[in-house]
Write a structure and sequence with these properties.
289 residues, alpha/beta, Rossmann fold, 2 domains, five-stranded mixed β-sheet
């Protein structure tokens, strides 16, 4: 497992009964987590002295309660700064476990020793985009949600990367990649964090289990002649890391050589010493990396 254990301002304090107790800087949150299927005693007093809790509704969805949070606040990870806030569907604007991928992205690009063009698809609020820029890459950030792209721009500004070479694109990722192929645009790095389920601009159904392989095939056509790496992250419960690795291997290693690595990613839990699993990541790396 790849573990995001370099945080100073974020911490999973405890987990029990479908929930996780988290420290986000100076604030304590309780949020649901589908992986927490154990029910251990909640002895940490912060389970009862939190600043906000997201509670699931029996009819679906949920809402924040006991809300004692500011509109937003800054959270720092190494040289990056993110503005976090309570959002719909229990989100806060970043996924802290992705820090383990941010480190890989920055270090690999920085070590490449050449100019790198990076494409970040389903890019959300820009954690991977900022990691690419911090490594020295020129980045194209693509997400279909205008509000998320705006948050990503704010995170870039907060991180001192407002003048970094980043293109901000609000578009359907599949349609954008198809146009880039037609335009002859090529990228050395591609990062994607596709949803489990969604609908395209013309009503197309996206289901990760059936859509991921053809999408990676499509994306392979936008890679340069000397690609550096391709990273695919998934939060789909039940999708084994090895499956993500096999997809990358069968499409990219066959064409370019190189190798794949795939693991669960996770966050350390302070009270228990365990690691909370948070999805799967596969990385294809070019020969020599």
């Amino acid at each position: 497992m790849w573990i995001a254990d370099q945080w100073k301002e974020y911490e999973v304090l405890d987990t029990s009964d479908g929930e996780k107790l988290e420290r986000w800087g100076n604030y304590i949150l309780v949020r649901p987590d589908p992986q927490v299927i154990w029910n251990t005693p909640k002895t940490d007093p912060r389970w009862r002295r939190y600043d906000a809790r997201y509670a699931r509704s029996s009819t679906g969805g949920g809402k924040w309660s006991d809300h004692k949070l500011p509109e937003h606040w800054a959270l720092h990870y190494k040289d990056l700064t993110f503005l976090v806030k309570p959002m719909n569907f229990k989100h806060t604007g970043i996924f802290p476990e992705q820090a383990v991928n941010w480190d890989f992205i920055t270090e690999t690009i920085r070590s490449a020793g050449r100019p790198i063009q990076a494409l970040n698809l389903f890019a959300y609020t820009g954690g991977a985009t900022l990691a690419c820029a911090a490594g020295g890459a020129s980045v194209c950030h693509v997400d279909a949600a205008k509000g998320m792209v705006q948050m990503a721009k704010e995170n870039a500004r907060a991180s001192g990367l407002e003048n970094a070479p980043i293109r901000w694109i609000v578009d359907d990722c599949g349609k954008f990649v198809e146009r880039e192929i037609r335009r002859g645009k090529r990228y050395d790095v591609v990062i994607m964090d596709p949803p489990s389920y969604g609908r395209g601009p013309s009503g197309e159904i996206w289901k990760l289990e059936t859509s991921l392989y053809p999408f990676v095939e499509l994306v392979s056509r936008v890679l340069s002649d000397q690609p550096l790496f391709v990273l695919v992250n998934s939060y789909t419960t039940g999708l084994a890391p090895s499956v993500v690795g096999y997809i990358l291997d069968s499409i990219l290693s066959k064409r370019f050589g190189g190798h794949t690595e795939s693991h669960e990613i996770g966050l350390p839990v302070t009270d228990s010493g365990l690691v909370l699993p948070c999805g799967a990541t596969g990385r294809w790396l070019a020969p020599g990396n």
